[in-house]
Every structure is written in structure tokens, then in C-alpha cells.
Amino acid sequence: MTSFDFPPTPNRCPDAYGPITTYNRLRCSQVAHGFFLDGKQRAKERFERQNEMAQRLEDPNLSERREQIWKHSGRLEAKYLRFLRTKEGLSNYQTIKTIGKGFFGEVRLVRKIQDGKVYALKRLVKTQMISKDQLPRVRAERDALAESDSEWVVKLYTTFQDNTSLYMLMEFLPGGDLMTMLIKYQIFSEDITRFYSAEIINAIEAVHNLGFIHRDIKPDNILLDRGGHVKLADFGLSTGFRKSHDSSYYQELLQKPPAQPDNVLRSQNRNSVNIDEISLTVSNRAQINDWRRSRRLMAYSAVGTPDYIAPELFTKQGYSFDIDWWSLGTIIYECLVGWPPFAAENPYDTYRKIVNWPHTLFFPDDVPLSPIAIHLIRSMVCNSEQRLGRNGASEIKNHPFFAGVDFSSLRNIIRAPFVPPLVSDVDTSCFPVDELPQTTTTDNNDSSSTGATGTGRVEDDQTPTPEMTLPFIGYTFKRFEKTFV
Questions:
Q1: CA angle 33, 35, 40 (to 5 degrees)
Q2: pTM of the complete model
């Protein structure tokens, strides 16, 4: 028997290499892990489909159709393998309209040229992602949506890229978002608030079950589908890598002097009316809506919207899943009162109010709220140690405010209080498209994706550069079953 003598394993000397080498090693490790994880998942899914088909063919009633079913299954698997080899690109889609905009990119309503199906296409500019330290954010959003198969989370179909941008093809939710609803109706009744908050609880619970903390629960990220039911979107901050959510960042921000004094919006002379099946309370529409529109414009910038962020993210304290329940508590407050509990004219005042929440949280005397609703809000907008939901969503579901709510039947049995009156599959009447630029010419941040032809088709740039490709290796994702079945 032959023996082999191997030299001893060399000692690891991480300090002997520079930061670039260390970063590349970590990045290669992440890419390799993601590549093999995706491959393992695809193999597992194919194996499960094969077993399901084999069990189905054991049915004696299918003896005459067994060969036909087996051939059909084989054709589907062949289609799946071709699907994996097919390269996605902008030339496969026709842009219809821009329906959303943020500091790092935009969301467009597009139609796939091959089959005519309508999707929402989110575009992120690579240079912005790199210069603003957003690479972990991009991966976090991609991973969270790729791993989720929940009916409460927006569906991701595929991701692809070119030399300047990243793209996420998602389902189009024509009902708009909750912020648009609040701008339109201002204030909800407790019954309507109960419905939406119950569905948001289901959505947050689905995200937590995946092991993610969303960290950016706000009305802008709560979308409504064709039936008016809730779906959660925008997972870019879900893992906490973003620089602007580092505790030191907020410590520096809180030390800056305030630009303006506190100016919390107040409302008077409230009365109740019925609008589109929703019992709403209406007050000074101009004042509240001016504030909401300015807050929506702030969401388009790099400043962000701090109104719904838990105080743990502003301090050096640790945090856990319950920070999402703080955010939900502030949303419930806004639905019932008309503005978030810590609203102010500038971000500094909002940060300061959130950190000093025991002294700044108040309920206006002229807003009629039930004691149960006030108790729910105070149980969620409070210290983490006492916060409702810290031991799971069931704590909130069992609160008296949700007495009688069947959380398992909200989407399938209960009719939403507002069903969007859509006239076509590309109806964008529930989106603030009038506030967004609708251009088809190129700009400085989108040299490859907005060059439209006469038919509205966008063209691919065929010369990707290593600098804009290497950091995003492993970003591609395809969801076969939901795309073709």
C-alpha cells in the first residue's frame, strides 16, 4: 500500500494582506456560497417535481394516460432548462410608464414582448450602489424576495443586469400604496385600520419567518393588489448593512442643531363622512396632505423618511425583530390620527422626538379614539423590553383591538374595504404618476436603459465593463414555476 507524504498546511496570515485582498476573499466566498446555494435549490426542486410525478403515475386510473403525462412532464423540464439558459434583457420588455422613483433608481410598468404580460420593473443604478455603499442592500433585497413565496410579499420573478443598472422584475400591484390611500382619504375609521393593520401583521410575520427584519415598514412600502389586499415590498434595508442605519451615523446626526423648531401638525373641527364604502374622518385636508406630499418627495431623496423608525436604530442599543412592530404602531397611529406620532418639519426634529418618545408621544384631544386603540399603540410604540410582538406576532393578534379577526381568511374570504376601480391591466390611476417625469430620453444615470425606440422598446448595452459587473456576480435569479405555469 502506497503512502503519501503531504507538506504541512500553511498557516493563515490574514494580517499579511491588504484590505482589498481581504475584501476580495470575502466577496468570492459570498459569490461561491450563493452560486452553490442556488444550484442546490434548483436541484432540490427538480427532484421534488420528479417524485411528485412518479407518485402521480402510480395511480391506476391513469394507466391509459401515463405515457402522455410523462412526456408532458419531460417537455416542461426541457422548457425549464432552456429558461435557465435564456438571457434576460431590457430588449424583452416594452416600457409603458414610470410608476415609482427613489434616490437610487425607479420602478416602471413594462410589458413583456413575448407573451404580453405586465410587470413592474425596478431599476437600480450601479454607480449609485457602489458610491453610496449599497451593495449589501442590493443583495439583501434580492435574497429576501427570492426566498419568499408568501402571498403577503410582492413576488419577484427574475433579476438581471447590464453595464449600468440592476433590474428586478416583479408582479405589478395596481392598487398603489397605503400612502396614496392616506393622501386620498386622510384618516381611516378603526374598522378600516383594523383590516389593514391585520394584513400588515401577516406580511411582517411572513418576513420574520424567513429570518429577515424588514427595518423599513412605512406606508410607501405597503402595496395593494388588484383586490385591495396588502403586500409588503422594498426589502433593501432588511439586513441592516446600509450606512445610513449605522448607529454612529445617527449619533452624528442627532448632534446637529435643529434647523427649525417643532411644528407638529394639528387638526380641528373633525366630522365623519362615507367615501367609497370607507367610513372616514375628515379634517384640514390641505394642511395634512401638503405634509404628506412633502414627505413623499423626501422619500425620493437620499434623506429618507425617519417617521416610522424605532429608536433602537438611532442609538447604540441592540435591536431585534420587534423594531418592525414599532413601525406598525406608528402607522396605526397615522391611520387613526392623520399624521405619524413624531411628525416634524425636518428630519432632525423627527429623530429627536423618536429618541425622546416618552415625552413626545401624545394623542390629540380632538381625535376620538377608543381606549383599546390607544392601548394597542402604546403597547407597540414603547421600549423594546415591553413592546408587544417581541415574542412573536401572536401577541399582537391576541390584543383586544383584533378581537374577532380571523387572520387566516383575510385575503381569501374578506373583501377589502377599497377595491381599486381598474379599467385595464395597465391602469396606473392609483399611483402618483403625475408627480413623476415620464421621459424616454437618456440621462446621466441611465445611459443604457432609457434609450427607447419608436415602439417603446428599451435597448441593451452590449459592452458591460468588469468594474460594473464583478461586484454583482451571483445577482441573477429566475423563478420558473411562477413565470410559466
A1: 90
A2: 0.72
